[in-house]
């Protein structure tokens, strides 16, 4: 699956869930949910140091996926093509840090 299709699938899935929950999503709600999901990812990653318990790979995968879904939806709300944005940024970083 190409990245564009992948992003569209993520957005469509979030949109279907929102419709089912009768939720009118906006940027502020999506940003808040992204921050919440980042917190859950941080808790999972930090669990080894804080709770002496290593996070299971499945838990980490779930948390990364939640972060990704919210990030993709937020980008969509601002009409940002994440694939293009990331590729453009990589090009800038390669030039800035003389990596090419």
UniProtKB/TrEMBL annotation:
Coiled-coil region list: 24-70
NTP pyrophosphohydrolase MazG-like domain: residues covered: 28-97
InterPro entries according to UniProt: MazG-like_dom (IPR004518), MazG-related_YvdC (IPR011411)
UniProt keyword terms in alphabetical order: Coiled coil
SUPFAM superfamilies: all-alpha NTP pyrophosphatases (SSF101386)
Keyword Coiled coil appears in the UniProt entry: yes
Database matches in Gene3D superfamilies: MazG-like
Keyword Repeat among record annotations: no
Protein name, as recorded: Putative pyrophosphatase
